[in-house]
Every structure is written in C-alpha cells, then in structure tokens.
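FYI - complex with zinc ion, inputs then prediction.
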Amino acid sequence: MKYIDYYETLGVEKTATEKEIKQAYRKLARKYHPDVYQGDAKKAAEEKFKLVSEAYEVLGDPEKRKKYDQLGMNWQSGQDFEPQHGRQSYSFHTAGGSDPRFSDFFSSIFGEDLFGAGVPRGRQAHRMAGENVDAEISLSITELVQGGQKELRLSMPQVCPACGGERYTQRGVCRTCGGMGTTEEIKTIAVNIPPHLYEGAVVRLKGLGGKGYGGGPSGDLLLHIKAAKDKAWQVVDQINLETEVTIYPEQAVLGDSVSVSVPTGTVKVTVQPGIHSGQILRLRGKGLKGPQGVQGDVLLKIRIDVPKSLAAEELDLYRRLAELRKH
Ligand SMILES: [Zn+2]
C-alpha cells in the first residue's frame, strides 16, 4: 500500500493549527461533496471526498494526528508503505471486515484504535464541546466607550444532531450535515458589550458559541470589534478621537472657556487668546482605552467660523476693526 500524506490531501502545512485544518477540510468537503456531482464526476468526487474525510479524521483528532506525525517522519507521500509489526493487528476484520469508509493505509495505522478495543462508538459514548464562533460587530463611539446591549443575528454551527459530529452514520456519509459534522443554525442573541473597547479588540463571550453535543459545553463567541463611522468623531491611531470645535472670531481673539461633549461626558475647554484655525487641543486620557489599558486622547480641531447673519451693531464693530487696521 502507498503512504498517504494527509497534509497534502488537505493542502495544509505540517504546522497547521486545528482551526486551519478544520477550515481546509470544510472547504474541500464542500467542493467534493458527491451530492453536487452526477455520473462519472460523482464517482471521482466520491473518491476525493472519502480521502479528504479520512485526512480530516486523522489530522482533526489531536491523538491520531500525533500518532500519524510520529509515523510520518520516515515516509514520503506515495512511498510504498509497510505497516510495522505489532501495529498491524487487523483485529477489526473479526468485527465484520475492514471499514469501507477508510483506506487500507488508514486501517493499518488506526484499525486497532477504532475497532480493536471494542469501544462502542455509539452516540452515548461521546460528548462534544461546541465550536467557538467568530463574529464581527460595529460599535458607535459611545458604545465603544460605554458598552451596552446589542442584538446579533448569527449563523451558529451546532454539532450535527443526526451524526453527533461523527460525520458518518451507519449508512455512510451523514446526509444531514453532508459529512461536515456540524450544521448551521440561525440565531438571534443578545450580547452584553463591555465598556472600554477599541477597533481590533476581541471580546470572548463564554458559552455563547456553537452548541455542544451530548452534554458537552457550548463554545465561545468571539466578537471582533469594529468602530462604526461616526458623523462627529474620527478615530485616529486606534485610541484617539478627533472632532471639530467651532468657535467665533472674538473667542479666538480674546480666548474663552467652551463646553465640549466628549464620549465620556462634557468637558470645559480653555481656548487661549490668539488661537488659530486648525490648531489642535489635546485632552489627555479622554479618548478610547486601547490594548493593555493604554488611554487615548480627545483631539479638538479648532475651526473659526463667522456667524451667518450679523446684527447691524456687530457689523459696525467689524467696520471699526477694519478702519483700525488701516492705520
Ligand atoms: Zn451529520
């Protein structure tokens, strides 16, 4: 028999993480799912599907993967493979012939584990933890600062109720989940968003991910935080908040104290006499809280504006100013 490189089958690196392996498997299982094909193509797809499933059966299971990796150190893809003595106890033959789901190569390595000890692979026999689910959420500046409750509509994987995540039933590839081991469930959930977040933060909500199976715990929901576009505020360097503050010419000339509402409340800001348009006032620590608790600033960009309609008296004063400047 030939040595099968399961990493090659799934198109992943030998160092691939569990997540990468799962993703690769899902992609290929969808691509080669026999139900999608007809005629000759169906047969070819079936073969491919079987091999991909087998690769995932091994690489998707940390224990099997370890065993396979140990073995694989001395073998190359497609090399003639001779099972080691002692390992090749084909005890599963007595349990009703080799399993048609798997190649001889697979059976020669794992046959014993799967069928030898007489462990029932029935549904009662296993518990499965639910999957962690990644979701993105856009928050307004206020929500980033203060947190709050949000409703989310999510497609959640749940362990397939028909095969219990085993991907196979006695009749072959599970029809309900198409051999994926999970099905999708659309759910609306209310989540409590904690305060002090920033774009790029990840909030882990325990137990709000995919449902487990057989009493297994639910997975977590990982919320990837995005800052929503805001009319007033612009996020600068992840943690600083910039906005424009409009003042009148006389405030710019004489200086003033102005109230500005920032996400954390209202602050009094001193405008120094002679301030320029475009000048930036920095309010330390009033911005967003960033990674490792770094506190951002609020940046106030000064804009000097002339009131649209001026009273006659005001106009007179401007004329006087103009006169004065001539001398
Ligand atoms: Zn299933």
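Residues 133-227 form a domain with the HSP40/DNAj peptide-binding domain fold (CATH 2.60.260.20). The pocket of zinc ion is lined by residues 160, 162-163, 174, 176-177 (CB under 6 Å).
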